[in-house]
Write the structure tokens for this entry.
Amino acid sequence: MDTRIDKLKEGTPTTGDERTFVHHAEAVEDQREPYGPSGFKGVFISSYAASCAAFAALGGMVFGYDQGVVSVILVMPQFLSRFPRVSETASGAGFWKGFLTAMIELGALIGALNQGWIADKISRKYSIVVAVIVFTLGSILQTAAVDYAMLIVGRLIGGLGIGMLSMVAPLYISEISPPEIRGALLVLEEFSIVAGICIAYWITYGTQYIDSEWAWRCPFLLQMIPSTILGIGILFLPFSPRWLASKGRDNEALQNLGKLRQLPVTDHRVRQEWFDIRAEVAFHRQTNAIRHPHLQSKSTKNSIKLELVSWSDCFRSGCWKRTHIGVGIMFFQQFVGINALIYYSPTLFGTMGLSHSMQLVMSGVLNVTQLIGVSTSIWTIDRFGRRPLLLWGSLFMTVSHLIIAVFVGKYNKHWSDHRGPGWASVAFVGRPSIALLRVID
């Protein structure tokens, strides 16, 4: 089986009644004429595709907002009076607070795992609409929560929508982007996540002074604004040309591609990319037919089985190294503790000896430094490449973590006598290298 697939990749004729299709990505890339300059400069050349990508990146802002809204809410007296079990004075408060924040991550995991087949079935566009509906339902439950159980359910459902958006929004962006600026446009997704975190944090910082439960209900309510704009606006954007080609709608794929590239469909660059998309779709379909010939009949049962075995294909010979690299980078990017910093940064700064008001201010500053780090990546990711950014970002983060660990371990019992190391720890927590790593995928 794998030998036949290798032949397909190389363009070697196969025997029997198999249809031969030449697939050689490197050769196509070498021969393809670019639409314009690569990187940040190319964004201004492909303005329509960049605008569509920026709008789709609102899915990232929704994700970031829901992350950023929690850190201040968890220390609000108005919130703690409604949900006393997460108060520091309550028994088992650490568990219930962690359970509350973990629900959105659990929901996101489930949502992301299931969004693939939804996006393939009903299109990237409409799957974004579905994700927005799910997220809005979760937001309504969070806003109207009257007890801890209702809040947990709302966080879980909201997490489902966030996971769906975090999977399909980058997919849509990558499929509508010209190859020269795909990296820069994908950074917009991460930029939107961090921007959402910053916006949510400072909104919540302001609403904490409302002398009622609207201090925390209002931020939950406001997160429905960008999601609603995304859900309605995405309907007016073009379908992904690759999805159209996968459904046999080749002429529509060509028309949408010409629209996205702002060129006539007769332009040789548009037609070359169109041929390449169709070749990729045909290769994928033919590979599936060779590997799983018994699952090719059109039925719900076979579709489910094919979806499951497609996941297992990621760990087959020839793919498992790429899979491990991709999964490993994304896993350890999260495992460095960035989400803990977002959710619990006021608590962390409290352990470094800062007052309550300064804890909140410095948490906001931390989010701003993340935004700065991501902003630079829009230009540097195509200028210097992914790997150098990843290696240097990892190095700076390792040094920062080491310095913080030494200071906290040595002075955490008497920060008042060692203000210098305390502020040095704060400075190293607020490094933009954290954000730099988030854009490397």
